[in-house]
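Thread: Newbie trying to understand structure tokens

Hi all, I'm a second-year student working on a class project, and my supervisor (Dr. K.) asked me to get a predicted structure for one chain before our next meeting. I've only ever worked with sequences, so writing a 3D structure as a token string is new to me. If someone could post the tokens and maybe explain what I'm looking at, I'd be very grateful. Here's the chain:
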Amino acid sequence: EGYELVVASRFVSGGQQVGLAAHRRMLSLGAGSLLKVVFPVGGVSWYEAAAYAAFAGKSLPTFYHWYRAADLRRFADILPLSNFDDRGPAPVGRYRGLGPFGTYDMAGNVKEWCWNAVPDSRRFLLGGAWDEGMYMFADTDARRPFERAPEYGFRLAKYIHPVPEAVTAAIPIE
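---
Reply by user tm_fold:
Sure, no problem. This is what the structure looks like when written as tokens:
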């Protein structure tokens, strides 16, 4: 309570696509990258994702806000329409697994870094990736924040009020 989450799909901010040119400049990837604007950013560490979010004036979503936006109650509707086909990432929105807040690819495509840590400093990656089982949509995964893999991406959140510390605090998992 007392804050609102504006959920935006990957690369989408206020209805406008965020070009990879800004992302490349910020991360010094160079103009020779083979990434295309329509694909989700993958292969980034938590630190790179958090730095880009700050650069864009946004944040990585908290664990709680990511799950709220994903609405796991609708998994039976979303999973068959999501990218879990083991062939690599797909252009954003190619699959019809649309979330309740107009978010594409909450399930499958690339996993998404979230703000929260676990007590040993790993960070959450949620949503499952194209090369994982569909069950990963509802499962929690936590990795070291410097780890990178083609399946590790991110989504941005814009909070209009400060998020309470209890919502951004570390979350114990087993």
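A couple of things are worth pointing out once you decode it. Strands lie at 5-7, 12-13, 16-17, 111-117, 123-126, 141-143, 152-154, 157-159. The longest helix spans residues 46-55. Feel free to ask follow-ups in this thread.
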